[in-house]
Amino acid sequence: MNIALFDLDNTLLAGDSDVEWPRYLIGKGVLDADYYNRENDRFYADYKAGTLDIQAFLDFQLAPLAGRDRAELDAWHEEYLARHIRPIITARGRELIQQHQANGDLVVIITATNRFITGPIAAELGVEHLIATEAEIGADGRYTGKPTGTPCFQAGKITRLNAWLAERGQSMASFADSWFYSDSRNDIPLLEQVNHPVAVDPDDALRAHAQDKGWPVVSLRGAF
């Protein structure tokens, strides 16, 4: 068996689910538009620059979930998925996932975005296996607004992937071939762990790194 890893935001999606979620909540009047747009833009700029304070961002990102009824959150997510996410899922991304699945590869989405946001998106893409940043759940069954465990970000993706594989009795050495598709400089550590790293619609830093290393540079927003 081979393994194919996919980043989600700006890779399989022609956009960022982390950005779209607060936009959705702003549209519902749940969040203050001025504050959240300003902070979201600031964190996103830091992410693209490779300087994101992941703990500060997660506190910001997860705060709107805190204490809310899970049924309400699930209903919101269904509407968010329909309005904000399905329109930015790339057809070529779906096809690439299906190609790997048809080849019998183990297909995994691995993303820094939290599981509440990304779980239903992975299901929409037909991907069973998701490694994501985990949101803490309190004794009452509601989100606390805090993360738990190692954030699935930068080198943390390697930590989380290795732990997930170990639970399955596997390691990266279990696979003859391995792919990772990503758009971001933040994923260079994991891209360097596979034997088929692929830069997808990459940011400038990843594009330069990929060209220097001779990695493929492709677009899932159009044709290869």
From TrEMBL:
InterPro entries, sorted: HAD-like_SerB, HAD-like_sf, HAD_hydro_SerB1, HAD_sf
Protein name per UniProt: Histidinol-phosphatase
Metabolic or biological pathway: Amino-acid biosynthesis; L-histidine biosynthesis; L-histidine from 5-phospho-alpha-D-ribose 1-diphosphate: step 8/9
Catalytic activity: L-histidinol phosphate + H2O = L-histidinol + phosphate
Role description: Catalyzes the dephosphorylation of histidinol-phosphate to histidinol, the direct precursor of histidine.
Family to which this protein belongs: Belongs to the HAD-like hydrolase superfamily. SerB family.
Organism, scientific name: Rivihabitans pingtungensis
Cleavable signal peptide: none
NCBIfam families recorded: HAD-SF-IB (TIGR01488), HAD-SF-IB-hyp1 (TIGR01490)
E.C. numbers: 3.1.3.15
Pfam families: HAD
Recorded superkingdom: Bacteria
KW Manganese (keyword) present: no
GO molecular function, one term: histidinol-phosphatase activity
